[in-house]
Amino acid sequence: MSSNLRIACVMVGLPARGKTYISQKVCRYLTWLGIKTKVFNVGNYRRKLHGASLPHTFFDPHNSIGEQQRREAAAAALQDMIEWFSNDQGIVAIYDATNSTKKRRRWLYEKLSKHDIQVLFIESICQDEALILANIKEVKLSSPDYANTDPDEAAVDFIARIDHYKEQYETITEKDLTFIKLINVGSQNIINMIQGYLESRIVYYLMNLHIAPRKIYFSRHGESQYNLEGKIGGDSSLSERGLLYATKLPELIQNLGTQDLVIWTSTLKRTVETSQYLDYPKLQWKALDELDAGVCDGMTYEEIEQKYPEDFANRDEDKFNYRYRGGESYRDVVLRLEPIIMELERHENILIIGHQAILRCIYAYFMNYNHEDLPYIKIPLHTVIELTPKAYGCEEKRYKVDIDAVDTHRPKLKKSPSVRKLSKINLGASGEIVREPMSPIIPISPNLFPRTSSNPSTIDLSEPALGSLE
Ligand code: F6P
């Protein structure tokens, strides 16, 4: 469905309140759902225009030169963002800055509304001093602003910078604006004037997000009988080696030292058997069952190539959008996994014992893979993958257990135009490529409710307001 919907998520909040983390998470989530999204970080524009390593006095609201230069950075980011919407057909942009005065927010709202862009303000409020300090240490001190600065000096400077922002910070109270306030990492949320499906989706996602540190582990089931025979799908039990992996898993997991782990499996025998010796709370999810290969279930790739040569070629042509006859595509699986992602964001330490295609989709969400590369991600058997979410992405470690297993990864093939039969329209057909790449996976309704300003006459549109805080 074509859509003229354009949403700007405008971040609001003092420095070190997790705004960049939230911006990146929303961006990755929407991109994973095929919605064209981009973050515009005003701090990056400020560094590009005026250099990094500026002392806290640059951010003092009484420093008129600093004030002027920060306004320039804010305007340049806004300009690029508006151009990106029209030139690149962007759907959601995230304007990552403090935007902490009413005047600044009004200016942004008016500029964006003029271009028929919906504005959703996302304010992050955090009163937990320990969390703020942890954020300063983990993210801010390694930022280009403090390259080659002694960490203690950098911390003192950054806290002074926050104090300058505090001088003029105004929390959102503007009733005519659309906003969500996230207070103390999801302990309280306030929402106002949310309209339309996509805005509600973003808000729902934000309400599930928590920023407490945690680990996410993935493991495929141990090698199965079908893996040994080169067959796909089915519901076979573990092979001898697969069972051995299941017996070794408790020791490996225990050595990782993560407390309060919860285990999720699919409903299929091979994942349940793999989890059997692990002494943690367990949950089975139907939504975690392997990609449904339809009529090809139980066949080897060679058999599929012989029996359905066109389908086989179509899958190599566009593996993400190819849907098996009577089965699923990776695109279908992403949609099916969306509630899992939401649930994953709500919980703390989790180990998912899953399947090749399923873990590729979930891994791609955390590691920001595009749809073209997603179906080729390597998730080998007998390996535990550990992800630790950080501000700009996830840190990854892989633990390989020393038990042989077959390799089920089929590399991306060179295209063979001779047997291509492409259907790029959304017929809901099977054995074909269904949907254009990069079309959204969730429905996006057209922009039916463009906003109007409540009081435009009081607003100066000529230049950014005073009190710019980047
Ligand atoms: O081969 C194991 C398996 O989990 C199959 O059951 C499934 O069809 C396949 O992997 C998915 O991988 P691909 O998309 O690369 O065929």
From TrEMBL:
The lineage of its organism: Eukaryota, Fungi, Fungi incertae sedis, Mucoromycota, Mucoromycotina. GO terms for biological process: fructose 2,6-bisphosphate metabolic process; fructose metabolic process. Its EC number is 3.1.3.46. In the C-terminal section; belongs to the phosphoglycerate mutase family. Signal peptide: none annotated. It comes from the Eukaryota. Residues 3-213 form the 6-phosphofructo-2-kinase domain. One of its GO terms (molecular function) is fructose-2,6-bisphosphate 2-phosphatase activity. Keywords: ATP-binding, Hydrolase, Nucleotide-binding. The keyword Nucleotide-binding applies. Substrate binds at R220, H221, G222, E223, S224, Q225, Y226, N227, R270. One of its GO terms (cellular component) is cytosol. SMART domains: PGAM. InterPro entries: 6Pfruct_kin, 6Phosfructo_kin, His_Pase_superF_clade-1, His_PPase_superfam, P-loop_NTPase. This is fructose-2,6-bisphosphate 2-phosphatase.
